[in-house]
Amino acid sequence: MIFLIDHNLKGHALVLFGAIASQGWLDIVPIRFVTFLEMELSNDSDDRVVWRLAQENQMILLTANRSMKGKDSLEQVMREENTSGSLPVITISNADRLLNDSEYRGRCVESLVEIVLDIDSYRGARRIFIP
Question: In terms of pTM, does the model score above 0.85?
Answer without folding.
Answer: yes
